[in-house]
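Because discrete structure vocabularies remain unfamiliar, it helps to consider an illustrative case, giving the amino acid sequence and backbone structure tokens:
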Amino acid sequence: MDAAAARDQPGKAILMHILGLSCFYHDAAACLLREGELVAACQEERFSRIKHDWHLPVESIRYCLRESGVSIDDIDAVAFYEKPFLKFERMLETFLSTAPRGYRSFVETLPSWLKQKLWLPRALETQIGFRKRTLYFEHHLSHAASSFFLSPFDESAVLTVDGVGEWATASYGRGRGSRITLTHEMRFPHSLGLLYSSVTTFLGFRANHDEYKVMGMAPYGSPEFAAAMLKELVHRRKDGSLSLDLRSFSYQYGRRMFDRDRFRRVFGITPRDPGAEITRQHFDIAASLQKVTEDTVLSMAEHVRRETGLRDLCLAGGVALNSVANGRLLREGPFDRIFIQPAAGDAGGALGAAYAAYHHYLGRTDRHPLQTLYLGPAYPAAEINSASAAADMPFQELSASELIPAAARLIAEGNVIGWFQGRTEFGPRALGNRSILADPRRAEMKDIVNQKVKFREPFRPFAPAVPVEDCSRFFRLDRPSPFMLMTVPVLSDRLPAVTHVDGSARVQTVDRDQNPLFHELLTSFGKLTGVPVLMNTSLNIKGEPIALTPADAVRCLAGSEMDFLILGNRLLAKREQDLHALR
């Protein structure tokens, strides 16, 4: 029975269910609110195994319904994270203003819009049987709502920065109680996010996929090209807004995001081919881009602080996943407190749309700050046992009292272990339920995990996880950072495997109440070694999404040189003799 029918029957409890969706660009996701409580959320890539999957998140929707114990008929409204017709208007206007250069690109993208992207209600009806109300919210309002309505603040400034939504590429305003008002915006084609993506592709990586790689490269270089970028590519104003020299960019009309000749004049080299050697000059370009980005975000924040007069800030949008910029904003910025929605990119737009529907459309005033990101599926022991049996690998059952001591000892002895427990994390980070763990005291672990387990570039850093009560002993951080969104200086020389070349680390603090098992593992490792810190990276190998199911985790063990995998209470190894050492 839906809420409308229940209202006609006295004595029936009314439970409002809202399904939030983001899809049709990248990082499709779904979430479900019950009376404003975030019950479930998952990204479609975890089910499809297609990284950054953009399709209608049918499997994620089905999971949210199962987890909530409701059917599609119980859903009162679907909230979508942007307005497709407004976005299509931008595409049309852009094509007309750049014609005929963009003809080929426009013709290639038009069928997907006419067949699918403009007809969400039809897709919902045919694929999941939903026939009720579909609500649409502007992209940057969804970003803003995903941060403010999940924050602990009753009132704050709100800043959103990304590539592009419908027209906006950045916006700011304020949230108060159950309302958000965005008062100013920067508009396409001028965009800090698109600048970052353009240089990402110049460096031989993929836009909307590999920007984090460029952030990881930056500390290996120096910002030699920052001045040239600010002179030739981007012009920044005092308020932090910017305009791009559009002669240098072609994302409005072409397949390539930048003008090859103009970028070559700025950087002195031709674009790097994917897979080609990365030179010192590439590292310097990455460092220059990162400096321009950080300085721009700081300028934006300072302007927003002056204009709003507020002491707290909520931040969202894809640029808010730049943890190095976030760290500088925390240390040098004008705000006392900052809340960043952990899935700050498009996946998190599903959360924002759902909460915009709850507060702005329905007028509900009760607030529900984010309590956990462990919002995805968990798997019972029977499925874990089935997956491990199918793998035909030796295993050992661990009792509840044996599990943590065995895992801590294996890591302290130099083993790399997979750690699969409880519900899957929502968002781009593994936070101790779908993780690969190693000893941060061993400098060689960085290369071992990069080369033999993750099969990725050697410059990529790893994040440390630490009990929140021990954080200030090892890192220059005086507050919780549970979602790996802040890069801060490392204070200890005992953590070489998680200390980046510039002496920083992207820290995850672990609270006993939020993840008691992972907290216990960190504490146990600390008792063995004196260092309650673990190297923590996501349970996957290069090119794959984070493991969702026990079978995904087993494939990760089989396809890498990881030493052990702990699935629930079951310890798997590739060889029987590896288990003998535990007996």
About this structure: The chain has 21 helices and 21 strands. Residues 1-12 have pLDDT under 50 and may be disordered. The CA atoms of residues 113 and 120 lie 10 Å apart.
